[in-house]
Amino acid sequence: MSRDSPGPERGRGAGRGRPLASAAARPRRPRRVVLPGVQRAPHSQARVSIALPRGAFSVVRRCVKKNSSQEYAAKIINTKKLSARDHQKLEREARICRLLKHPNIVRLHDSISEEGFHYLVFDLVTGGELFEDIVAREYYSEADASHCIHQILESVNHIHQHDIVHRDLKPENLLLASKCKGAAVKLADFGLAIEVQGEQQAWFGFAGTPGYLSPEVLRKDPYGKPVDIWACGVILYILLVGYPPFWDEDQHKLYQQIKAGAYDFPSPEWDTVTPEAKNLINQMLTINPAKRITADQALKHPWVCQRSTVASMMHRQETVECLRKFNARRKLKGAILTTMLVSRNFSAAKSLLNKKSDGVKEPQTTVVHNATDGIKGSTESCNTTTEDEDLKAPPLSTGDGSSVLEGRRHSESKTQTESMQSQLSLCFSATTQSCEEKLHAWDSPGQTLELERARSEPLLTPVVPFVLNRAPLRKQEIIKITEQLIEAINNGDFEAYTKICDPGLTSFEPEALGNLVEGMDFHKFYFENLLSKNSKPIHTTILNPHVHVIGEDAACIAYIRLTQYIDGQGRPRTTQSEETRVWHRRDGKWLNVHYHCSGAPAAPLQ
Fold this sequence. Notes:
Elements: E1 33-34, E2 46-54, E3 58-65, E4 71-78, H1 84-99, E5 108-114, E6 117-123, H2 130-136, H3 142-161, E7 164-165, E8 174-176, E9 185-187, E10 194-195, E11 207-208, H4 215-218, H5 226-241, H6 251-260, H7 275-284, H8 295-299, H9 302-305, H10 307-310, H11 317-343, E12 366-368, E13 386-387, H12 414-424, H13 434-442, H14 447-454, H15 471-490, H16 494-500, E14 501-508, E15 517-518, H17 521-531, E16 538-550, E17 554-566, E18 572-586, E19 589-598
Helix pairs in contact: 2-11, 3-5, 5-7, 5-11, 11-13, 12-14, 15-16
Enzyme class: transferase
GO molecular function, one term: ATP binding
Organism: Geospiza fortis (Medium ground-finch)
């Protein structure tokens, strides 16, 4: 239920794509079926329709309750692939979700078990991610940030009243109920949530997402409800300036910063933030959990409960710009990690030194590289959710066990992580802009954390090694095929487009209004009715393409796309989008298997 939408690739895209499933794991055209087992529970009968993002062991589908026509999201888990430990976690998640009924929490309406499958029927949340909605707004102020954190705190206060600790508060788990203006913020993903006894502090395991971990978790001290408040403080900081409070390219130093609470409010971006907002952040990011503000107390803070008179109403354009970059980077990291995991099924290690690069025709699209970009030695990663309890369970037979409804990913084995870590080291270099530097550094937490808890795990499945000396050639190959695909779009050549794309291409782009699109029919409409009839020239410039080679037969490219055209009044126009494409080589031919675009549609509406 991600926000960015698929469209006819009219020329935009970036970052976050859904985790990919193998061709065998995902149906090409979702069919309407009745959920198995629900006939034994008439009140839960649902008809499955549109496929939503899915994970290695689960698929999420839009479904309709037959007796009311009410739409829901059905998370279908293949329990045959789960270990005994994972079964316990699934039962824990369902048990916790059944307790929670709040307008700011994605509600579980039904939990159905049958042989081989388990069904969790949730609210259908169609508004996408909160952070993506913010960057699409024309106006965003400190008061808007107050309204957002107010709703987040309401959800946290509710779960804490029920003695539940979420443990994984982060942007990916903050969704909007719908695309309507003013839609409610919904807290999702209780896969790592735990039950506690009141204000009890205990060691429940090392779990969470690196950038949002609290000092007590990093110290491996007993912890409880305050860990959620710390994460709220990190989120609030980002909501106000668009970048995180703690950052460093070195992961060890990053954790030292968090444990020391070493953050500040630098100029000039914080100069326009009210003292009350900074005060609330300070109370949330208090190192001592016993002195940290509670959710109930935070809701009574003047900046939250009296925002109309306390919070500033000034538009924060710089925050929006930084937040847009923050979104693009974290989504790219998610796409990269997913592709790395999927590529294990696409490649064989023995072919690494034998295969030769395929020739690619040079297209006309302009490519502009940032002269300051380079290869950094530090590691970067997505916001990977980890839980050390996983180490106590038998190793899973396949895949990564990620849960896509909530955007959660479990840690991989040591060997897999090291392979990913070496590949992820070829990432963005910091630019001279302060928020970009901080975002770049923020990307570093993740892989070392997984290594710390994965040392004793056996290798689950072979990982294709990374061949460094082949990388430059492969990167140019991916850039060229991407240019070729964009040329086909600009020329309205659907036939050429289909030859470069996988028939089951999945995409998120603005034209699809926050929905995941699979297949070519959606894109074909725009080729036939707009692109092919466009008589005026279109020129595309690809800025700063970053290619991540993943094994021998998979790669991910991220870039900024500028599209120039002449509008209906004869005036020159330029649009910008941030795009990410995942490529897979099949039978010696590169195919685009996933596309993600952020920003307004780039196809000129002449």
